[in-house]
Each structure stands twice: as structure tokens, then as C-alpha cells.
Amino acid sequence: MVESTLWHPVALSEAVAAQAPLAVHVLEQPVVLWRDDQGAVHALADQCPHRGARLSLGRVTPQGRLECPYHGWQFAAGGQCTHVPALPAFVPPPTHCARHFEAQEAHGLVWVRIAPGDQGLPVFTAEGDARLRKLNCGPYDVAASAPRIIENFLDMSHFGFVHEGWLGSREATAIGDYRVEPTPTGLLATGCKAWQPQSNLHSTAAAQVEYTYEVTAPYAAVLTKVPEAGTTAVDGWRESIALFICPVTPVRSRVWFRLAVADFDSPDDKLQAFQHTIFTQDQPVLESQTPQCLPLDLRAELHTAADKASSAYRRFLRQSGITFGVC
Ligand code: FES
Ligand code: CO
Questions:
Q1: 55, 71, 97: which to mutate for ligand 1, most atoms within 8 A of CB?
Q2: 3-state class of 160 per DSSP?
Q3: How many CB atoms lie within 10 A of CB 52?
Q4: Most buried of 13, 31, 58, 143 (most Cβ within 10 A)?
Q5: What's the CA-to-centroid distance between 29 and ligand 2, angstroms?
Q6: Which residue lies with its CA nearest to atom 4 of ligand 1?
Q7: How many other β-carbons are positioned within 10 Å of the β-carbon of residue 142?
Q8: In ligand 1, which atom is closest to the CA atom of 72?
Q9: Ligand 1 centroid vs 90 CA: distance in angstroms?
Q10: What angle do CA 63, 64, 69 make, to 5 degrees?
Q11: In whole angstroms, what is the distance from residue 302 CA to residue 318 CA?
């Protein structure tokens, strides 16, 4: 499993507007996204093969071609140059081509991969559940490696400190035993219990909440929260949150959350505000961690039984041959 053969999220779908190319970065590669005249999204290296100008400064023609801002060369979806305005009769040969990347849309995001591979998109089971409403939060630009951010997401023992009064309390910091098993895409941690003062937007009282965590790809994870019966004010509350991270550089990441919630009434911004509060509590701590890369040698940092999900994540990354954002 190599980083470049994975699908990476690069932008909100809605951020790629018609006729407006968008510059993004993944794995230190500048990429331009644009929509053709049919609305399909495409990705090319953000560097014109003629004289190196940024294609993202150009425009999309009415025919759905990407036009370079410098000399107006036009490029089709697969990267083929179709028109050189300085030589209108010239038919560009196949070698006149911009570097092309595969692109697709899912989970409210545009996904790109740098090299062909066998992996599919990270699975998010709740996406297909019509009883749950889906919406995105982010992007957040974070000065931390993608694996540090995943590991923070799997970590329950920081709740009473970083999220005191929200997801945890200094009065109830003990982490009970939980189970961790490896899976083909990462790991599954079940039976993770926490006492939470305000476990979600609708909490009116503290609740014992059971979490399941799943690492679904090297830079993607899903948590599912199940409040214990009778301890929550809102019956039937269910929530599943996917964390999707774009590794921009080894130590910079762009982060989105995909929420799947049973609440169809609250406005988007209210649901996003809760997640925003939680993540902006995490962000300064994440950005303070050194080294910024995630050390895969288990002797490099200290671990306890409460950290066994993160230890399993480090083992998975090492076995997968992941090199970006780790050390
Ligand atoms: Fe793009 Fe010349 S640099 S057309
Ligand atoms: Co946190």
C-alpha cells in the first residue's frame, strides 16, 4: 500500500464550481480541479506542460476544456492538449499532454489519486443509511501530519483534558478495557466507554457513551457513538463521524469530517458548530506535538494499555509500508 495509490480527499464537491478551476495540493503535488460542461470533475497536475504556468489561474471554456492562463492552450479531461491558439491549424500530437490524475466524487468530497492502484475509497457504511442525514464539516488546515490527526481521533484518554466539560471530565478520566483487532484496512476498536458531560449537540445531561472506532484507510477513520439506554435526553440519537484527511505535506494536512446523524431538524451550521468546537480544541495540541511525523518505532514514545488503539494503528502503518507523515 503506497500513499500515491490511495484515494485522497482534496476538496468539498461544492468548492469546485462550474467554470472555476480550483488549486489543491496532495502529497506535495499541486493539482488543478475543474468541472467540464457535463459537470464531471477532472484533475490535472497544476503546471502547464508548455511553459509551466499554473493551470488553476486559467478558465474553463464553454466546451468544458481547461484553458491555460498564459498562452491559452486548451486541455481535455484526460490531459490531451486540443488547441494552441498561436497556431490555430496545428493538431497537437498525443505527446502534447498535461499530467492527468483520476478523480471522483463521494462523501461530499472530491477524491484524487496520484497513481493507479487497487484500493477503493475508504468505506463509510453510514453513508448509505437513508435514516441518517449526511453533512460535511471543514476543511481545517492543520500543521500536523495526517497520522497524528488520525491517532488523536482514536484517542479517548484526552477527553477529560482537551474536551473538558464537553466530551469528558477530570472527575472521570479512567479508560475501561476495550478490544482492538486488525482489519484489512486498519483496525477495529470496540467497547470503548466514556462518561461524557455533553456528548452531542442535544445532550442535556451527562451520559455514558460507547464508541466504536474503525481505521478505514491509512488516513481515514470512522467513529460510531452509541449512548447507553436511558442516559441520553434524545431517544434514538445515533451518530457516525468519518474523518477524512488529505496529506498535503508530511507535516501539513487538510481535514474534513463527514457527519451522519439522526437529526434532520437542526440547521447545518448548528450541527457543524459542535464538531467545530471539538476539533478546534484538538488543533492547538495536535500542532504542538513533536515530532510532527508519527513515530512508528514503538520505542520512540511511551504507551499504556489505554493507548492500544494507537499502538495498533502504528503497527498497521508500518506493515502497510506507509512513509508519508511517519518517521
Ligand atoms: Fe500554458 Fe503557455 S504556459 S499555454
Ligand atoms: Co479530541
A1: 71
A2: helix
A3: 8
A4: 31
A5: 29
A6: 71
A7: 23
A8: 4
A9: 15
A10: 100
A11: 17
196: its cell numbers:
461524557
Q: Pick the residue whose CA is nearest to atom 3 on ligand 1.
A: 51
10, 31 Cβ separation under 8 angstroms: yes
Ligand 1 pocket, residues with Cβ under 6 angstroms: 48, 50-51, 53, 68, 70-71, 73
Distance 83 CA to ligand 2 centre (A): 51
Q: Which of 235, 217, 237, 225 is nearest to 167 (CA)?
A: 225
Q: Which of 44, 47, 48 to mutate to test the pocket of ligand 1 (most atoms within 8 A of CB)?
A: 48
> Looking at the CA of 71, which ligand is closest?
1
H/E/C letters for each residue in 80-119? EEEECCCCCCCCCCCCCECCEEEEEEECCEEEEECCCCCC
- How far apart (Å, rounded) are the C-alpha atoms in residues 36 and 6? 24
Q: What pTM was computed for the model?
A: 0.95
Q: What is the pLDDT along the chain (327 residues), one digit of tens a residue?
A: 789 999 999 999 999 998 899 999 999 999 999 999 999 999 999 999 999 999 999 999 999 999 999 999 999 999 999 999 999 999 999 999 999 999 999 999 999 999 999 999 999 999 999 989 999 999 999 999 999 999 999 999 999 999 999 989 999 899 889 999 999 999 999 998 888 887 777 777 777 888 899 999 999 999 998 766 554 444 555 789 999 999 999 999 999 999 999 889 999 999 999 999 999 999 999 999 999 999 999 999 999 999 999 999 999 999 999 999 999
Nearest ligand (C-alpha, residue 275): 2
